[in-house]
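Morning F.,

Quick status update on the modeling queue. The single chain you submitted on Monday has been processed. Sequence for confirmation:
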Amino acid sequence: MTEASTAYQAVPTPDERERLQRTWYWYDWANSAYATTVAAVLISPYLTAVAKEAACPGIADGQTCHADLDVLGVGIAPGSLAPFTITVSTLLSAVVLIFVGAIADRSPRPTRLLGGFAWAGALTACLMFFITGTNWQLGVALIIVSNLCFGASLIVYDALLVRLAPPDDRDRVSSRGWAFGYLGGGILLAVNLAIISLRDSLGISEGMSVRISLLSAGLWWAAFTIIPVLGLRSVTGTVATPVERSAGVVGGSLAQLADTFRELRRFPQTLTFLLAYLFFNDGIQTVVTSASLYGKEELGFDDTQLIVTILLVQFVAFGGALLFGRLAGSYGATRLVLSGLALWVVVVIAAFFLPEKAFGLWLVLGVGIGIVLGGTQALSRSLYSQLIPRGRESEFFSLYQAMERGTSWFGTLLFGLVYQLAHSYRLSIIALILLFAIGGVLLARCDVREGIRAAGNPVPRVV
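Structure tokens below.
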């Protein structure tokens, strides 16, 4: 028997497989606390407020700061600091996470890596409690490190999907994982909404309420990660690798990484999908990470209204992910992702024309985002899992994860540059249509069935 033929560890029974899948869902529940409370809602507006205080001491909420921060000798507008920070973290991720994927494929115990990255990221999220006053530098450093750890843990987590779900079941399992994550993230966000809304009754300042919420996300992430780390410890690494084991984990991983880029040219449909995902996921992630900044700075909503919005999105996305997963069984994941991208364009256009302080219309927009958010992300993950060769799941998912949620780079760069030049978040948000359009065109040109066959995987009944 060859190494390649042992790439998948057989799950003993259908009941055991179902149990492992339920355990796997818990990491979506765990990390969504960071993705929602920290990345999507609080950290960008909070870091912007800290940066504005540093550049323009005593500035009132809602006022525009026209002074720049000195960042390594470069003048940066306080309103651009958060999106530029996310951009930097993603550029680092594009390099670091690929090496993580190569190492993860050679690790016999992938759940240990999952736990290590997750708990390191949770620690940095907890340390965000100490971002106060004008200390924007600490905020920048913690965002970069936490995003790297977040992305690294998701490489290992996503790769486990291939080992726990057969091809025809993967859309359902991936969608349930995303739905479970939105539910968990939504519950913690509801708690944080109560803390921020009742801050006067609790005798704490607005800044302290935000810092407590950031701390709670780190603690939640750390605590619930224990369940998948312990529950999936029986799932071993694939060991299917084209390089000699004598090269060691690091040396062998570097050789495997070089081979991956050579091999990727042999899978043109996989490469086309990755390019499509690079663009349309950048658009999705930029909308998600910048929505709170757009809502607060451009439309004049307060933190409570923003948390209510994201909370609504979370629970609608729970249903949206399950709906898309069910529809994929009849219409195929490819068609549904393309339909979702068309709806994202509608959302961006609506956001551009939304009047200031129109909170009711803002909530309607949030419902639209929730419907397509979970579905497009869950089905993109399961669709890509069909296009990667066996035994190299983590390595190929590292390429995917470099462009995953919270790590878009071109979108945040575009968003920040437009604001830097025009000082208008409306122009920044409308520019994102370009990313959805390019991604949609590339995905429409991807022959998914041919890509699955070329990767040596069985073709599902509907794709």
